[in-house]
């Protein structure tokens, strides 16, 4: 796999049972690149370690005054130099290719998993952790995959040099052959502690990333309530914890690096001391002593890769563990395939709660718990957080549909939709039936003032659709972002559209026009709106109250406000005492006849609607 061939047509199915297994799977899928890097690494390292033998031969040729051998040694030095240059260049190329392709494979897997899970991902994994995995963790995983081949080449080179020294000069070669394994294994007792400290650092860094991500996402709200300093203090504390953990980890790695410098130095002293005595006894030549000494000195170069692979594994293992955790997440239902290849049609029914959304009607759902509403909305879209009975579209369970078919049939817009950066035209360029145009959707979502604002911000754009939107729409207000997201959902024109609080950030007048626009534009299509707004509820064909996970009441808004105290409490924020007061007032009047009952009923409805409107205006 080369960089120009990215992205992968199929990144494969990862082994997510553990972090080490995931790393092994990545390496196994890059055997070609790893073998190339290993071969180029061997050429480079062996050429480097061949220099001492050339130097020893040259010294011995000078001592023996042999010009021919000196010329031959010069040729060998040129050959080693060419091998060093070529091997280093191609090793770097192959290693970087392994790094980038491994990181790209992980990022592609993460992107596919994110697209498959949708908004259910952030309910199961913190958004900051997903960001940390897709950025810093991906780089560390790529680092380990890239370092494996270089470590393999370094290890084979060390073995080859030790064997060569034993054959070349047994008296000193045995000392080197015994000392080098000690150098390589001396730091092993320190690695578990270094790994634990690296894990702590990664955990604290991930926590700081999550906190920063959450703070940025809620910056507008924080400014509104004056909570910037509170969150800044929290981030400062988290940042200092990361710094402290990084310092502790760096101290351990500094100790390991120091040992890697100290022990080779001691080995060189031992080799020189032993070699001098052997030379004085006449058992070795001067050139042989220079060769062994130079070989030991240059062995520190491949030995450094032992420390690098230990660091790479220590830092990449927790990163791989987090990546494997995210990649192991799956839909709670496993889509096997549709029955006949066609999208089903009919009523949308949830057997768990008993919620029924008749085909072609606008159904409003009232939940006292906003979190429960979000979970139920995801269930209706075929993405339940937990395994349970499947939602039915007509008579077809949604979990029997492929993921793309389920999303085509049922579209869910959650309460916090995301706007990607780019032009408004690109934002609205989504898969759709073609029946609803951009102008119709923008008009139904009451986006006129949004278009005006975008035009004023970018006067060079002749068409408002060509105006650019900043990342996540941060230059727009909450209500403007919400309306653009609604327009995007309306353009798709799915068979079933599920909206979770689509007007929570707009004023009451705009909300009333949006409610009418949704009703007109979605005529003949199934629409489910999770809301507690009286303006939306009053325009629904059917209103369903879900209480404690089950359907508690079904009817029209005006009737439910009058007849059901639980519904009235959610919609109008009316307490039970106030409800009793209304009942007592109605019963104490002189009219127990139909006119007094009608007046009391109309008064209760009007009072409930007014209370709801006041609450909406205060929220807006």
UniProtKB/TrEMBL annotation:
Ranges of residues in domain ABC transporter: 324-573
Gene3D superfamilies in alphabetical order: ABC transporter type 1, transmembrane domain, P-loop containing nucleotide triphosphate hydrolases
Localization terms from the record: Cell membrane
Region (Disordered): 571-601
This protein's record includes keyword Mitochondrion: no
Ranges of residues in domain ABC transmembrane type-1: 50-306
Annotated GO MF terms: ABC-type oligopeptide transporter activity; ATP binding; ATP hydrolysis activity
One Gene Ontology cellular component annotation held by this UniProt entry: plasma membrane
Keywords: ATP-binding, Membrane, Nucleotide-binding, Transmembrane, Transmembrane helix
Skewed-composition ranges (Gly residues): 583-592
TM annotation in the entry: 37-63, 69-87, 147-168, 174-192, 253-273
Protein's UniProt keywords contain ATP-binding: yes
PANTHER family: ATP-BINDING CASSETTE SUB-FAMILY B MEMBER 10, MITOCHONDRIAL, ATP-DEPENDENT PERMEASE MDL1, MITOCHONDRIAL
Protein name from the UniProt record: ABC transporter ATP-binding protein
Phylogenetic placement of the source organism: Bacteria, Bacillati, Actinomycetota, Actinomycetes, Kitasatosporales
């Amino acid at each position: 796999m080369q960089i120009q061939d990215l992205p992968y047509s199929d990144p494969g199915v990862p082994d997510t049972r553990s972090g080490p297994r995931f790393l092994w799977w990545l390496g196994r899928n890059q055997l070609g690149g790893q073998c190339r890097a290993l071969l180029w690494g061997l050429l480079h390292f062996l050429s480097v370690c061949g220099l001492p033998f050339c130097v020893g031969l040259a010294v011995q040729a000078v001592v023996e005054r042999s010009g021919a051998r000196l010329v031959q040694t010069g040729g060998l030095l040129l050959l080693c130099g060419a091998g060093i240059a070529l091997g280093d260049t191609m090793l770097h190329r192959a290693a970087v290719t392994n790094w980038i392709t491994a990181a790209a494979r992980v990022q592609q897997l993460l992107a596919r998993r994110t697209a498959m899970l949708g908004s259910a991902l952030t309910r199961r994994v913190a958004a900051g952790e997903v960001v940390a995995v897709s950025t810093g963790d991906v780089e560390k995983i790529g680092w380990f995959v890239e370092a494996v081949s270089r470590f393999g080449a370094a290890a084979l080179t060390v073995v080859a040099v030790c064997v060569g020294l034993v054959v070349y000069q047994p008296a000193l070669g045995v000392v080197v052959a015994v000392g080098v394994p000690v150098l390589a294994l001396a730091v092993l007792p320190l690695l578990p502690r270094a790994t634990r400290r690296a894990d702590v650092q990664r955990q604290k860094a991930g926590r700081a990333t999550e906190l920063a991500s959450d703070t940025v996402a809620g910056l507008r709200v924080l400014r509104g309530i004056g909570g910037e300093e509170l969150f800044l203090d929290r981030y400062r504390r988290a940042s200092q914890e990361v710094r402290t953990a990084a310092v502790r980890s760096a101290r351990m790695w500094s100790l390991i690096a120091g040992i890697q410098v100290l022990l080779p130095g001691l080995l060189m002293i031992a080799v020189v001391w032993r070699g001098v005595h052997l030379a004085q006894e006449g058992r070795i030549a001067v050139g042989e002593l220079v060769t062994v000494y130079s070989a030991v000195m240059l062995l520190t170069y491949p030995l450094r890769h032992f420390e690098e692979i230990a660091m790479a594994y220590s830092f990449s293992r927790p990163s791989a563990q987090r990546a494997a955790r995210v990649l192991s997440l799956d839909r709670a239902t496993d889509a096997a395939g549709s029955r006949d290849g066609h999208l089903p049609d009919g009523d949308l029914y949830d057997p768990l709660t008993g919620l029924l959304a008749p085909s072609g009607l606008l159904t409003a759902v009232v939940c006292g718990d906003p979190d429960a509403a979000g979970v139920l909305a995801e269930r209706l879209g075929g993405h339940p957080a937990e395994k349970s009975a499947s939602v039915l579209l007509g008579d077809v369970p949604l979990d029997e549909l492929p993921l793309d078919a389920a999303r085509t049939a049922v579209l869910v817009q959650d309460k916090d939709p995301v706007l990607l950066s780019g032009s408004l035209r690109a934002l609205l360029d989504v898969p759709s039936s073609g029946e609803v145009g951009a102008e119709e959707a923008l008009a139904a979502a009451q986006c006129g003032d949004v278009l005006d604002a975008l035009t004023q911000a970018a006067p060079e754009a002749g068409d408002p659709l060509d105006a650019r939107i900043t990342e996540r729409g941060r230059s727009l207000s909450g209500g403007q972002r919400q309306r653009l997201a609604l327009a995007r959902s309306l353009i798709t024109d799915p068979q079933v559209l599920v909206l979770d609080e689509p007007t929570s950030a707009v004023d009451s007048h705009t909300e009333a026009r949006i409610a009418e626009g949704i009703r007109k534009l979605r005529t003949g299509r199934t629409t489910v709106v999770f809301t507690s707004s009286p303006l939306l509820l009053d325009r629904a064909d059917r209103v369903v109250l879900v209480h404690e996970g089950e359907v508690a009441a079904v009817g029209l808004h005006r009737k439910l406000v009058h007849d059901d105290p639980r519904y009235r409490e959610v919609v109008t924020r009316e307490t039970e005492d106030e409800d009793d007061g209304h009942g007592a007032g109605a019963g104490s009047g002189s009219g127990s006849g139909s006119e007094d009952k009608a007046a009391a009923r109309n008064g209760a409805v009007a009072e409930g609607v007014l209370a709801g409107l006041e609450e909406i205006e205060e929220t807006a």
